[in-house]
Amino acid sequence: MITLVLLGILALVVGGCVCVVWAERGGPRWTRAVAAVTLGAGELLRRFGKNRSQDQPAGDGD
């Protein structure tokens, strides 16, 4: 079951990347909408990753 969920997520990610490339080349309006959502989600994940890395201690210097 988990494999199907992960494959579904992978398909969404690949489809989003395809729409970003297609929209850059002048694709239809719906590809620009999907590309905007994909880029926005990527930006949110990037910010979330930066915040998580700042919350973790750097180490004690040993």
Structural features, described:
- The chain is mainly α.
- It has helices spanning 2-24, 29-55.
- Helix 1 crosses helix 2 (29-55).
- The relative contact order is 0.09.
* Radius of gyration, in angstroms, nearest whole number: 17 Å
Q: How many strand units? A: 0
What is the mean predicted local confidence, pLDDT?
Answer: 88
Helix-strand pattern, N to C?
A: HH
Structural class: mainly alpha
Q: Let me know the largest β-sheet.
A: none
Q: Given the C-alpha coordinates, what overall shape results?
A: flat
How many helices in DSSP terms? Answer: 2
Detail the poorly predicted runs.
Answer: none
Relative helix content: over 70%
How many angstroms does the end-to-end distance come to? 43 Å
Strand content: under 5%
What topology emerges from the helices and strands here?
Blueprint: H1 2-24, H2 29-55
Explain briefly what this protein structure is.
Helices cover 81% and strands 0% of the residues. It has 62 residues and is mainly alpha-helical. The longest helix has 27 residues, at 29-55.
